Amino acid sequence: MTDQLPFDTVPFDMFGMPIPNCCIWCHNESPEATFDVSHVLPECVGNENQQTLPHGIVCKKCNNYFGTKIEPALLEDPLFHIIAVALRLKDPQDMNEFRDQIFDSKHPPVGSVERNLHCDIEISPKNMKLNVRYCIKGGIVKTYQKRELALLSRALHKIAFENLAWAMINKRIQENIDILDPRFEPVRKWSRYGEPTNHIRPVVRMLTTDVKPQWEFRLWKFGGDIGAELNLFGDWYAVSLTSSHAKAQDDLKQWVGSSRSNYHIWCIGEDLSLIKPSRNKCIKIARETWRKLTKAWDV
Asked: Are 156 and 203 in contact (CB under 8 A)?
């Protein structure tokens, strides 16, 4: 019901916490700052209004900055890209697919691309029935520059912190957490301003076999610090929201140590480093999931 009302007419007690009218990123307040509805996850991958922050949380300047300068690093990331293609994620603005080809100008194939078409034909006096299976096989190589890794890390920390704000506003978390608390300065400075400039705040990443068109957020507490787990369509991430930069990587090792995963776990930081190998030599989507995903491919 609240989605159908102008946010300035919604009483504070309809949300899990008061709307601060202070941007959680730059800390500018109304009326100096003008506010916008902010999409926690970019709208173009299907987040129409499932997860948005109302007016009074993120100012227009910060919202525009993230949408144009930071989030594209995640949207163009090869792994995120191929999952988006496989799941046929649609942009709710025009209902066109966000990405419709595995290989494109920003993700060119390395070497030749194999396309295999299998067709079973059933004939009756007046009908022809075609059972079609079409598959594509090729390689993509991404050589990351340090700046690209930094932008990817900043995008993921941005999504994680806004997930926390969204969870607080919508009463998805039972405890009271002040999203303007100074202990969130490390993630705020990193995501919005890229500070410190000489280091990359680490992110733990893990791809599972459970690739599906949904996302989720989990709060992770360790000692006096707060972290977040993000599942973006089967691609899992872990970040610390409060650890100092010097301590963040060691704190994330606690998350890795507690994980019972059989999948590759690696760190996005100054480079890409494998910190927990899977039982297999490469990441694979489960065969039954792959069948479902490739059924409708036409790339």
From this structure: yes
